[in-house]
UniProtKB/TrEMBL annotation:
<keyword id="KW-0732">Signal</keyword>
<keyword id="KW-0472">Membrane</keyword>
<dbReference type="Pfam" id="PF03180">
    <property type="entry name" value="Lipoprotein_9"/>
</dbReference>
<dbReference type="GO" id="GO:0016020">
    <property type="term" value="C:membrane"/>
</dbReference>
<protein>
    <submittedName>
        <fullName>Metal ABC transporter substrate-binding protein</fullName>
    </submittedName>
</protein>
<feature type="signal peptide">
    <location>
        <begin position="1"/>
        <end position="17"/>
    </location>
</feature>
<dbReference type="InterPro" id="IPR004872">
    <property type="entry name" value="Lipoprotein_NlpA"/>
</dbReference>
<comment type="similarity">
    <text>Belongs to the NlpA lipoprotein family.</text>
</comment>
<keyword id="KW-0449">Lipoprotein</keyword>
<keyword id="KW-0564">Palmitate</keyword>
Amino acid sequence: MRKSFVLLLGISLLLVAAGCGNKSSDSSGASSTSGSETQKIVIGSMGSDAQIWKHIAQSQAAKDAKLDIQVKEINGGIETNNATKEGEVDVNAFQSWAYLVTYNKESKADLKAIATTYLEPMGIYSQKFKSIDEVTDGALVALADNPANTARGLKLLEASGLIKLKADFDDALGTVNDITSNPKNLKFELIDDKTGPRVIQDVGLVLIGNTIALEGGLNVLKDSLFHEEISQATKNNINVLVTSSDKQNDKGLQKLADLYHSEDTQKYIKDEFGGTKVEVKEPVSYLEGK
């Protein structure tokens, strides 16, 4: 009798252990389950990007992919990257390749891009001038105060013909000190980039990324005096999905790119954002120059 009891107890323990083994945490770090169970993925995002991922989260395609996508809105790019680095979110969707490179350099972090999504042009906006040619001597120009977008804005001003930059200008960390020619004697002020739409009336020109422009009711293709063109020269401004290095090979996270580039999602983006988010479906190696 005692032997039978011990045998039954041993079998029960084995069954419990086997049951626990069905649920796992993927070796790459993301929370996942085996077989037909759904994997939970938390995406850190903001603004229009958060809106897009909420749409994807509710889609039939996400259910078919067995993903439970939850969108956590975080105010601020550095804060969103910090949350990704610290594991508070599994992946984030808000930033350009240049922004990621700058963050990794300045924070000594090792976040990884796992997919490209889109490029949305940065624009030069004004309520005082109707064209670049009308910009007057000494006009005040507002630039984003984060390094990647400061450099991006200066490159755009150069493309517009208003200034010239050093030949070895750093696309990620360049500053106004790298201006070599400023024929209109423009003055520069660094601002919190989220305030761009609100300061248009207070400055001569303001450079605004499209996500923030959209939140301010602006369409870069219609309302800006000048905007970036989609080309090899602007590939550093392509937006990417980003995760921590220990999760970059997670199979669930890899499915996110397919969901983003699906026909349903692209139609939704086109309808909602008036063509200002141009789809980019290139491998990350394209950004790395490999």
